[in-house]
């Protein structure tokens, strides 16, 4: 019998799941219904299903979510809506007796995380949070090296993440730019990074201190730099034509079908100027975390960098590991990706305390994130093999990965260190 899935939220990320089900996993899985507040986006998802030779599935307005569950009685609900609504759909599915797969972040604050944890206990249903970064071969390799005691006890970690002027800037055009929707980058984006740290060192955060500012995006900052003209949205705007931060929603099929054509039924404008005055998230962040078993993390995130990726080093009782990953290299001011891929780097080096340093081989597979995405999808929809790295993330992993960011947000607001145990009762 095929496993039957319904999906709530049919925007940009959704197709990663429903297309995998409709193609690679069509023997074991099927998508049976969509739910969203935009009929246009659901119709587009159905068009893509048809392109893959599948039948259209019934669509339900977001006000008919419970009705969809009653009508279709699926095996799983997949949640790919905006972050602020994840908890609502997760909890309502569990209450009705369904297991859930949710995109990250599991949710955006400690109250909603507690409600999910309580619902899981009350209903006995399961929640899986899809942390695809864990499956990228370089990230799994770090877990292996630390697990195998290659550098002994990990006393400290230095981790800097760079978001570039293309992908990084996009957070400041979309719903993510308001903290009420995304929890800010420390939750929305750093949930991946803090989950990686929890996974790598097999520990959870204890105390968090942070600073954060909006230094580059936003109107005030553009004014300070002497920007001469401003606009509300880029598509159709004269002023946007010379702005390297503008995107044109007519420039590709997905942007047009999912967002431009859906403006009437969703009210959502996806191409807002990154230099507008209602941005409530930070673009420059510094966080210090002490973990349960004693490790100290120093973390930074900057969202206006010339390249995208990360540097991370682990300092241990027997040596040091350094990893550098450049995911996207230089983009020129016209938005063209110069020499795309040419500067991309993935390297892991081990520096034993009293021995020669050496490079660690990273074996990649086909597909996104160095072959990690297909492994995760197989884990979800195929016939998974036992995983020696335990990469499948539970609701507890989902909660612990956001709590570093939630605590960091509180620390930025209060100027005080925050104890994670004071935020949640697991
Ligand atoms: N793991 C990853 O690498 C990755 C990458 C991208 C996005 N994501 C996650 O996927 C989720 C969706 O992001 P996206 O980029 O597709 O955003 P998006 O804006 O393209 O899509 C969000 C969808 O949610 C719908 N929606 C909004 N409010 C709703 C409500 N109350 N009820 C039902 N539907 C509602 C919107 O109409 C839209 O179709 C986010 O949680 C994001 O964090 C994860």
Automatic annotation (TrEMBL):
MF (Gene Ontology): nucleotide binding
A Pfam family that the UniProt record links to this protein: GFO_IDH_MocA
Residue intervals of the Gfo/Idh/MocA-like oxidoreductase N-terminal domain: 4-131
Chain ranges of the Gfo/Idh/MocA-like oxidoreductase C-terminal domain: 143-419
Family the entry assigns: Belongs to the Gfo/Idh/MocA family.
Protein name: Gfo/Idh/MocA family oxidoreductase
């Amino acid at each position: 019998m095929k496993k039957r899935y319904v999906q709530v939220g049919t925007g940009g990320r959704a197709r990663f799941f429903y297309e995998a089900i409709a193609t690679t996993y069509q023997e074991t899985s099927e998508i049976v219904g969509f739910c969203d507040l935009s009929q246009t986006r659901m119709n587009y998802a159905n068009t893509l299903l048809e392109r893959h030779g599948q039948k259209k599935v019934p669509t339900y307005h977001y006000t008919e979510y419970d009705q969809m569950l009653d009508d279709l009685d699926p095996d799983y609900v997949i949640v790919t809506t905006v972050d602020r609504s994840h908890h609502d759909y997760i909890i309502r599915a569990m209450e009705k007796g369904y297991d859930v797969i949710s995109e990250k972040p599991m949710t955006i604050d400690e109250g909603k995380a507690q409600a999910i944890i309580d619902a899981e206990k009350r209903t006995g249903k399961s929640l899986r949070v899809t942390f695809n970064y864990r499956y990228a071969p370089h990230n799994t390799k770090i877990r292996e090296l630390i697990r195998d005691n290659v550098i002994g006890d990990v006393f400290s970690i230095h981790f800097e993440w760079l978001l570039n002027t293309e992908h990084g800037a996009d957070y400041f055009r979309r719903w993510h730019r308001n903290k009420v929707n995304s929890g800010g980058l420390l939750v929305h984006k750093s949930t991946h990074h803090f989950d990686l740290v929890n996974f790598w060192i097999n520990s959870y955060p204890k105390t968090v201190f942070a600073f954060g500012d909006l230094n580059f995006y936003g109107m005030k900052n553009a004014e300070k730099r002497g920007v001469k003209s401003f606009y509300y949205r880029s598509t159709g705007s004269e002023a946007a034509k010379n702005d390297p931060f503008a995107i044109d929603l007519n420039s590709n099929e997905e942007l047009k079908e999912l967002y431009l054509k859906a403006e009437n039924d969703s009210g959502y404008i996806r191409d807002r100027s990154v230099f507008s005055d209602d941005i409530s998230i930070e673009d420059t962040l510094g966080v210090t975390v002490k973990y349960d078993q004693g490790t100290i993390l120093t973390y930074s995130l900057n969202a206006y960098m010339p390249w995208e990726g990360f540097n991370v080093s682990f300092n241990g009782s027997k040596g040091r590991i350094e990893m550098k990953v450049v995911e996207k290299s230089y983009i020129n001011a016209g938005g063209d990706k110069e020499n795309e891929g040419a500067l991309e780097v993935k390297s892991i080096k081990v520096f034993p305390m009293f021995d020669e340093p050496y490079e660690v081989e990273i074996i990649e597979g086909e597909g996104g994130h160095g072959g990690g995405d297909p492994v995760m999808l197989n884990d979800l929809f195929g016939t998974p093999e036992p995983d020696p790295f335990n990469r499948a993330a539970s609701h507890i992993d989902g909660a612990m990965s956001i709590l570093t960011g939630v605590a960091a947000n509180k620390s930025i607001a209060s100027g005080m260190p925050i104890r994670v145990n004071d935020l949640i009762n697991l």
